[in-house]
Write a structure and sequence with these properties.
Two copies of one chain form a homodimer. Chain A is about 45% helix and about 25% strand. Chain A is built from seven helices and eight strands, in the order αββββαβαααβααββ. The structure holds a DNA duplex (30 and 30 nucleotides).
Chain lengths: ~210, ~210
DNA sequence: TTTGTTGTGTGACTATCGTCACTTTTTACA
DNA sequence: TGTAAAAAGTGACGATAGTCACACAACAAA
């Protein structure tokens, strides 16, 4: 069911019981699963593909927080659900994804009845928290060129392909910077022979 | 027992049952409750005073993430405990604080036995997550002068006094910048009559 | 009172990044 | 095949903030 399991993974028995409670959907790239200020009615669990999660600020600027990988869920949506809140984030499908949609009611019920589910949630919190800390760290102490390079590397690892299909504008949005900046820095990376550039395409040669 | 309850608060009955399980300690300012890479054996719950939580990076640079206020706990420590991990953060006493020290074993037991505790933990996660998102946002999209001003305002609100006792270096550390930068920006704020400067002291005149 | 330590003020310089104002290239499709 | 739209390249410039090198002020302890 889950075709790749980097890092944290959901256990088979837990997954089986979740599948009984929810429905599986296949979602195309760029589908918005959760938008800012959305009321949360479902908890999505990614079975295949990847979802990217953004923080959106008042002026519409955004920054990539982390990826939800197969075997993971969106803890923010879960929290929002538990606390009757609205989403502070935006979740968008990056690669076509199979997603298990679990109604909030079921998700909260399961906390009492299924210890494995609770454990799963906590583990996921831990992961996300640490990832957020990394974002803070990167944004405060790293230069844009390093951040860009790490973003490219992350994409390569995630998709298991060194061909990245994206535009400079998209990368800029993910880093919270301007398109020109990304273009410049990509050119520098190309000069260092770390990547090759093409239209809508970046080929990473050296990790 | 708890002398101020801004925002989220722990319920009386829950607090009572926690008091039976842990011990209360009074901690002086600058006491390090949890340091980076510490193994976590206790979950601290703040009864009075304030604790500040930092992310520390490899080069020793740090940045303030959030404050733990009375009636709150350090979720990171809790997570670390649950997941057998070491701390990614540093928690330091800002104002003298009364802290309830709860052993990890008790904290995990209580999850099964006391629904209010579980609820409390989840609420706290939500708060922290949102605060972290705010940090990311501030750091990416706000200028240093705004961030500094907001930090000062936060300190005033927290201590309920418009006299802040701190050094420029401390503020710089909290913002992840250099002392000179803080000195410069503080001077600008003084020129705008928003603050008065003194040695080890900043008086905020206008909120 | 002297002396050392800690905190603050400041000018000069630099690097990074955001912005503006384009041009050029690539591609879709009318 | 021509034309418009989308993506990318690029130079110039300015603002912000990090760094260096001090001078100076306040305080504490000897």
């Amino acid at each position: 069911m889950i075709d790749q399991l980097p890092g944290l993974q959901i256990s088979k028995p837990l997954l089986d019981s979740l599948l009984k409670e929810g429905t599986v959907k296949v979602l195309k790239p760029n589908t918005v699963i959760i938008d800012e200020n959305d009321y949360i009615r479902n908890v999505p669990i990614v079975l295949s593909g990847t979802i990217k999660v953004f923080k959106v600020d008042e002026e519409g600027r955004e920054i990539l927080l982390y990826y939800i990988k197969p075997g993971e869920s969106c803890v923010m949506s879960f929290l929002g659900a538990m606390c009757n809140g609205t989403s502070k984030i935006r979740a968008v499908v990056e690669e076509e994804s199979k997603v298990l949609i679990l109604p909030v009611t079921k998700a909260t019920e399961l906390i009492r009845s299924n210890p494995a589910w609770l454990e799963f949630i906590f583990q996921l919190y831990n992961t996300r928290f640490e990832e957020l800390l990394e974002v803070v760290n990167a944004v405060v102490f790293q230069n844009m060129d390093d951040r860009l390079w790490e973003l490219l590397r992350k994409k390569v690892t995630l998709t298991r392909s060194n061909e990245i299909t994206t535009t400079h504008q998209q990368l800029a949005d993910e880093l919270g910077t301007a398109r020109e900046v990304v273009s410049r820095l990509l050119k520098q990376l190309e000069k260092k022979n770390k990547i090759q550039l093409g239209r809508n395409r970046i080929t990473v040669s050296e990790l």
